[in-house]
Amino acid sequence: xxxxxxxxxxxxxxxxxxxxxxxxxxxxxxxxxxxxxxxxxxxxxxxxxxxxxxxxxxxxxxxxxxxxxxxxxxxxxxxxxxxxxxxxxxxxxxxxxxxxxxxxxxxxxxxxxxxxxxxxxxxxxxxxxxxxxxxxxxxxxxxxxxxxxxxxxxxxxxxxxxxxxxxxxxxxxxxxxxxxxxxxxxxxxxxxxxxxxxxxxxxxxxxxxxxxxxxxxxxx
Length: 220
Fold this sequence. Notes:
Shape: globular
CATH class: Alpha Beta
Helix content: 25-40%
Distance between the termini: 10 Å
Number of domains: 1
Structural class: alpha/beta
Radius of gyration: 16 Å
Order of helices and strands: EHEHEHEHEEHEHEH
């Protein structure tokens, strides 16, 4: 099954509830929440109070992507705020295995993300422990960037690594520059969770845009 996880980074922050509901009406079963600290990435986005406030309006998976230094400091708080799936970056912590274990101990699903410049080999020690791998297909920090073509090769490598580890159940997420024009080749490369921001939250057409992705997923 292919999942759509619309990124709230591209939503109307004055109307988050409306945009979340529209995306879900269109078929989105994940909602992607980008948390940035201005240190790990050159931007500051949203934090714990916003996650807590939108949780009641999300019917599916609250997909929290922590782009912050030393994420272990805040894992418990984000879980309490309503995160169902928490993703941390291998580049942001010296103890990635401990962070994954902590997320599981909190009762959430654990994801691990890699930036465009990070090789897939960095995932080898942890691939058997995580629920999801996130391949960043842009340099994290800002929405609206163009998809980095080499990301397709990295998705293939992650899929091969998962298969070798007996993890055919692994969620493989891609985030950055995802559109209806490249979604098919992204899925064919191995992704089964697509994060889309600008391609979904375009004015008040989030429902129709999400529906278009879901229809495409049915064809792949």
